[in-house]
Design brief:
alpha+beta
């Protein structure tokens, strides 16, 4: 299992006039945590792109629990339960600074060869890096 967390402040433009975070921003928070996690492995999105690997979203499921608000500092988690063969499944959650669950979801990413535009299995280089962080 691979676990990662980051902290993100809620910015003014992410909220509606009542100060509540718009639902679409939770998907952005998920993506920020995934990008930071991959970068923490020393193989960030830019390096993946240089190697011809992209990660299209295959599916996304989000369940909203409690609203985040302007001024909150969010803890965003990403968890990978198993090293992928073809699709990367990431379970994610967003909590406010009081530990209250705001949203949770699952994102499934595929692997795409950016040169051919074709779906591919999980690249060996990416798998071997993930294996180093698998607890």
């Amino acid at each position: 299992m691979i676990e990662f967390e980051t902290h993100i402040p809620v910015r003014y433009y992410e909220a509606d006039p009542m100060g509540i975070v718009h639902h679409s921003n939770y998907i952005r928070y998920f993506e920020c945590a995934r990008d930071e996690m991959i970068a923490s492995w020393g193989y960030g999105i830019e390096k993946c792109a240089e190697d011809g690997i992209t990660f299209p979203v295959v599916s996304l499921q989000v369940k909203y629990h409690n609203p985040a608000r302007i001024g909150d500092i969010l803890r965003v988690t990403a968890q990978i339960d198993s090293i992928p063969l073809a699709k990367l499944t990431v379970r994610q959650a967003v909590y406010n600074q009081d530990g209250l669950l705001c949203a949770e979801g699952t994102v499934i990413l595929g692997f795409l060869n950016s040169e051919t535009g074709r779906i591919m299995p999980c690249p060996e280089k990416f798998r071997s890096i993930m294996e180093k962080y698998d607890k």
